[in-house]
Design goal:
heterodimer; A: 269 residues; mainly alpha; MetI-like fold; 80% helix; B: 279 residues; globular
Chain lengths: 269, 279
């Protein structure tokens, strides 16, 4: 009996070791092959700094927009009753089936050189494709479901009793939300923001397509890594990949705390 | 009396309710439905014959077939190893179990492009392991289908584990115990009693990982490169066509990919609803 247990455990540990741990070790090893100073130097290249700055800006904008509208959508999908609600609910998984490259392509169709909306954006003098707005739009598309999917179960578990009590006591809709509903949602809200941010940091395909990858101008961290790899600037590519991977990992570890608190608050109800 | 209370607790400002709903639905329409409509309209705009002629070119056909078969191989391995991992994590106690459980989620935390870079460092021809595999076994990973499968295995590892695990935790063990009392060997208990109970979760997790694999780009483009008729998948094909300005080809291939991924996800949806009806 016991040998079977240890055999199965070793198979799983071995598989995960080869599949997941070995590549993680390889990137640390690959980046530090020429020593820590080389990594630091590679990371101080203006293109690297600029690309990480751009990723941060996109991440902040996307997180704020999804933070507001994602909460609104979760609220409407849980608290309102309307025709077609079930359909909307199922459509929420759509970005999951959509390749990031296709998302980027739809933006090219809309805003690219022969884009459908090109006359409009030109008249307004808006630069969307091959510029920051397009990259933000691309990231917004691929990160849409996270916020909504995190908030919906908590809103459902929270129920309406306390909200109704607040309303009976004369609180306005906004007051009820701000003082009663939101405090209950707060951990799930933070977790949703974190997940959205993590996904935004790592977005590549959609942003690559719509940004055009203009060196030092429309490159996000991932697009920079891809280009550096193509140009055989391995030190830059590996160091930036290591940094981006580390940031994502730390972020996910931190928001896991929010996730646990949120789960606990659901269980307590 | 009852109607009166309902009226009183309902929001007093219907316009506020309507504007919130309107804003939420507009936001969803723009960010959820718009890309789908654009792909479908743009793809079908050129006519069905145009799509067929694009997709039946040798390069496009190869890309579709490569995407499907590497996805299927990945799903199969993922189903077996994901099931095994979930089983070990739920049924056995051993030192380091919490850590192992945490490692399962790592692939979701790492950007897929970074995954690609990792695999290139590990298995690239200049790397120790990659060079050894290539010279001793004649097995090439990078710029080859095995690299695609490896990248997909990495990025989709959590799907099956995380869909089977909760079902296994909540599984009532009395049937297994009954089978054991009746003298059934362990593998038979697993095969006849445990597995059937896990099957729906296993199938949906596997299908989800397949749907996801159809569109995977970041990890694959680095690991497999963009070599037509050899290691170019459908997503990389679309990227290449956009770059070279042939939107018609990109849009036809996008439609095919979307049809496969959405078809797979509808299957998952249908299976889970059928289960709900039965239960």
């Amino acid at each position: 009996m016991n040998w079977r247990k240890w055999l199965l455990i070793s198979i799983v540990v071995g598989y995960m070791g080869i599949l997941i741990i070995a590549p993680l070790g390889a990137i640390v090893f690959g980046a530090f092959r020429e020593g820590a100073p080389a990594v630091l130097e590679a990371l101080q290249h203006p293109h690297v700094l600029r690309s990480f700055g751009l990723t941060l800006i996109i991440c902040l904008v996307v997180v704020s927009i999804h933070g507001i509208f994602g909460t609104l959508v979760a609220w409407v999908l849980v608290r309102h009753q309307f025709v077609g609600k079930a359909l909307v609910n199922r459509l929420l998984d759509l970005p999951f089936a959509m390749s990031p490259v296709i998302v980027g392509f739809t933006l090219i169709v809309l805003f690219g050189r022969n884009g459908v909306l090109k006359p409009l954006t030109e008249a307004l003098d808006w630069q969307i494709a091959f510029a920051l707005p397009g990259m933000i739009l691309a990231t917004l598309f691929v990160t849409l479901p996270f916020m909504v999917r995190e908030l919906m179960p908590v809103l459902e578990a929270f129920g309406r009793k306390q909200e109704e009590a607040a309303a009976t006591l004369g609180a306005s809709g906004w007051q009820t939300f701000r003082l009663v509903t939101f405090p209950a949602l707060r951990w799930a809200f933070l977790y949703g923001l974190g997940l959205t941010c993590a996904r935004a940091l790592g977005e590549f395909g959609a942003v690559l397509v719509i940004s055009g990858g203009i060196q030092g101008r429309t490159e996000t961290a991932t697009v920079y890594i891809f280009r550096a790899l193509d140009d055989r600037q391995y030190a830059g590519a590996y160091s930036a990949a290591l940094l981006l991977g580390a940031i994502s990992l730390v972020l996910v570890l931190v928001i896991d705390v929010f996730h646990r608190r949120s789960q606990k608050s659901i269980e307590q109800r | 009396m009852t109607t009166q209370t309902i009226e009183r607790t309902a929001p007093r400002l219907p316009w506020g309710r309507w504007s919130i709903r309107g804003a939420a639905l507009t936001y969803l329409a723009v960010f959820l439905v718009l890309p789908l409509i654009v792909v479908v309209v743009d793809g079908l705009g050129a006519g069905v014959e145009s799509i067929v002629s694009v997709v039946s070119s040798p390069i496009a056909r190869h890309a579709i077939w490569l995407t499907i078969w590497t996805g299927l191989v990945m799903s199969l391995i993922n189903a077996v190893m994901g099931l095994l991992t979930a089983f070990v994590l739920v049924r056995y106690e051993f030192p380091g179990k919490t850590l192992l459980n945490a490692v399962v989620d790592l692939p979701f935390a790492i950007p897929t492009l970074v995954t690609g870079v990792m695999l290139v460092i590990l298995y690239g021809p200049q790397a120790a392991i990659g060079g050894w595999l290539n010279q001793q076994l004649g097995w090439q990973v990078i710029f080859a289908p095995s690299g695609i499968i490896l990248a997909l295995l990495f990025t989709s590892f959590p799907f099956v584990v995380r869909s089977v695990q909760p079902v296994l935790i909540n599984l009532d063990r009395s049937s297994e115990e009954a089978a054991a009392t009746l003298g059934a060997p362990a593998w038979q208990i697993f095969w006849r009693v445990t597995l059937p109970a896990l099957l729906p979760a296993l199938v949906s997790g596997t299908l989800l990982s397949f749907a996801r694999a159809i569109g995977e780009f970041g990890a694959i483009v680095v690991v497999a490169g963009n070599i037509p008729l050899r290691s170019q998948t459908a997503a990389v094909y679309v990227y290449g066509e956009i770059e070279s300005g042939s939107q018609r080809d990109a849009s036809a291939m996008s439609l095919v990919m979307l049809a496969i991924a959405l078809g797979t996800m509808s299957l998952v949806d249908w299976l889970s609803r059928r289960r709900e009806v039965q239960a």
